[in-house]
Specification:
The structure holds two protein chains of two kinds. Helix content of chain A is 37%, strand content 26%. Chain A is α/β, with parallel strands linked by helices. Chain B is mostly helical. In chain B, helix 2 runs parallel beside helix 6 and helix 9 (237-248) packs across helix 10 (264-288). Chain B is globular and about 80 Å long. The chains are: A alpha/beta, B mainly alpha.
Chain lengths: 306, 293
């Protein structure tokens, strides 16, 4: 079986993938392509993120559809796929009494790296994630943040083609989370390893990912690069001193789309600047703010999930 | 300008382009790691106590026999002052039963409790290869106890001129090999089968002890006082394993136990059935377990 190593080829491709747990539908005809770089899997709990990761790893069998990861079907060639994948699970449990370096070395050997090289790779990976000085400590004595780093070191030490990280910032404080995100971004950009990160934190995904797949109810409701997703009718953000309803009515009458968000109006339409200026002047309202509105990932997510 | 002899220590991340072994090496890696874990190697002293005790129980009588045979001037006889091979398996059996109860569960329970099972199955292993590695590790360590002491005893008796003629040694070695393999497989299957049902080593240990002792005692009472068929004694693991050793070495069956009246074919079938049930329970338990991802 020939692995797909082409630079342009997506790391994973799913078409019509269905997965049930009894009567519960976890994935409902999922179609998606996961490209190179860092891809974020976004969705609320139960959206299907963890199930998709399980299918990508070949740990569960899909009920229908087709799926390829690194050129192989993980259901029939799971071992070949997992050999080239690094994985950071969501749970924080690791063998407490084992030294970090021994754990990473063991998992590196598991992926086919000979023992002598595995020792060196494990040590290097722990230095890369900032645990060089702590590498001989038992994992059980480490903080949650350090254990997350140990999992990340285990995932990259055997130099995989793809790393899957399930909620890698779970349980971290803001400083640790910031460090972890920088580290993941660095692995994705400098180390040349493609990464799929599952998260329900929009700002994390927006900060480090090149592309995003938004899941809801087991389906992909939006996917693409961040630039593509943010593109669209951006409109104007208008804040005035009172008179929101009157202003909104005047603008709607002029053919613009107006949405009231908190104390602001979001105005969308062709060339709205002059119309907004004139309407505010006619109504004698005080203008606080008038600026182009940039779509954030949160806007995209809320829009997509209805 | 850099100083002469200056070196760059932070070379950043380096990709790996060296040798990558076949995925089957993952089985070897996990098996060797499991051997280390169950023997308490690279772990604190308390983890070495029980495996050490099991090995001492298996070896010590053989060493004492050899010392007696060498030190005492009078000629000792196998079956009188010295252990027969069939008798010797009482010690071997005690050692592997202790190991199956209190050491072997380490091979399975800890991985499930600590999440390592998920890490393993996210690597180039599947459930079958994972269980193969664990079974090989536990059986391998048990073989150390079921094969090495009797082989040592055979060598010692032969050197002292007590054993069979040299022409009969290969056949005796084959009998030792067969008994050792059967006993190791039997107790490994039982130990792993029970361990596959719980994540707690202590629970598994108590369960194995109860499984090894209680059915045999109940069966013996039922046979002696209730008139149950002698074949019921096959549920007693210790009696069954001990009887197998006696039959393999052509020694007289147990006189004071019901299993002594059971045919050799049924004894062999009993050992195979226990081993198969243990292996099946382990396999089915792991088929049900969802790897956490």
């Amino acid at each position: 079986m020939e692995p797909a190593d082409s630079q342009a080829a997506p790391v994973a491709r799913a078409h019509g993938v269905v997965k049930h747990y009894g009567a519960t539908v976890a994935l409902d005809g999922l179609d998606v392509e996961l490209g190179r770089g860092v891809t974020g899997l976004l969705g609320s709990n139960g959206a299907g993120k963890t199930t998709l990761i399980s299918l990508l790893l070949g740990l569960r069998r899909r009920d229908a559809g087709s799926l390829t990861v690194l050129g192989h079907d993980p259901q029939t060639a799971g071992i070949e796929v997992r050999e080239r994948i690094g994985y950071g699970p969501e749970h924080h449990n690791l063998p407490a009494e084992v030294q970090a370096q021994d754990l990473v070395r063991h998992l590196t050997e598991l992926h086919g790296i000979p023992p002598r090289s595995a020792i060196q790779r494990a040590s290097d990976a722990l230095w890369q994630v900032g645990l060089g000085e702590e590498r001989l400590r038992p994992v059980g004595t480490m903080s949650t943040g350090q254990r997350q780093r140990v999992k990340l070191a285990s995932a990259i030490a055997h130099d995989p083609a793809l790393v899957l990280l399930d909620e890698p910032t779970d349980g971290l404080d803001p400083v640790q989370r910031d460090d972890m995100l920088s580290l993941i971004r660095r692995i994705g950009s400098e180390f040349g390893i493609d990464i799929v990160i599952s998260s329900h934190h929009l700002e994390e995904v927006e900060r480090i990912c090149d592309a995003v797949v938004i899941l809801d109810g087991g389906r992909v409701i939006r996917s693409g690069t961040l630039t593509e997703l943010r593109r669209g009718e951006e409109g104007l953000l208008v804040e005035v001193d009172g008179g929101h309803d009157e202003l909104a009515g005047r603008l709607r009458a002029a053919g613009l789309t107006v949405e009231l968000v908190a104390e602001s109006l979001v105005v969308v339409g062709a060339e709205p600047h002059d119309l907004v200026r004139d309407a505010i002047a006619d109504l004698g309202l005080g203008l606080r703010r008038l600026e182009p509105r940039r779509r954030t990932l949160e806007d995209v997510y809320l829009e997509a999930s209805g | 300008m850099s100083e002469p002899g200056a070196r760059i220590y932070d070379v950043g991340y380096r990709s790996y382009d060296g040798e990558r072994r076949d995925p089957w090496w993952a089985v070897v890696t996990v098996a060797l790691h499991a051997v280390q874990r169950v023997l308490g190697l690279r772990r604190s002293f308390r983890h070495k106590v029980l495996p050490g005790l099991a090995i001492v129980i298996a070896f010590l009588p053989a060493i004492v026999s050899l010392v007696l045979a060498v030190v005492l001037e009078e000629k000792l006889e196998i079956g009188d002052e010295l252990f027969t091979y069939g008798d010797y398996y009482f010690f071997v059996m005690s050692a592997v039963a202790l190991f199956a109860a209190f050491v072997a569960p380490e091979a399975l329970c800890t991985d499930r409790r600590t999440g390592m099972l998920g890490m393993y199955l996210a690597g180039p292993l599947d459930r079958g290869r994972y269980l193969l590695a664990k079974a090989a590790a536990v059986t391998g360590v048990m073989l150390l106890m079921t094969l090495a002491p009797p082989l040592f005893l055979m060598s010692a008796y032969a050197v002292e001129g007590l054993g069979p003629a040299s022409s009969e040694l290969p056949e005796l070695a084959l009998r030792i090999l067969a008994t050792g393999l059967a006993m190791a497989a039997l107790f490994a299957a039982v130990g792993l089968g029970v361990a596959s049902l719980t994540t707690r080593k202590a629970v598994a240990g108590v369960a194995v002890v109860l499984l090894v002792l209680v059915p045999g005692i109940v069966a013996e009472i039922a046979i002696e006082s209730g008139g149950a068929p002698d074949a019921l004694s096959l549920v007693g693991l210790l009696a069954l394993a001990g009887e197998l050793a006696l039959r393999v070495f052509d020694e007289p069956p147990s006189e004071d136990a019901a299993i002594g009246r059971v045919s050799t074919a049924l004894v062999v079938a009993g050992v195979l059935a226990w081993t198969a049930v243990g292996a099946a329970v382990t396999w089915l338990s792991y088929r049900r377990i969802e790897a956490r991802s």
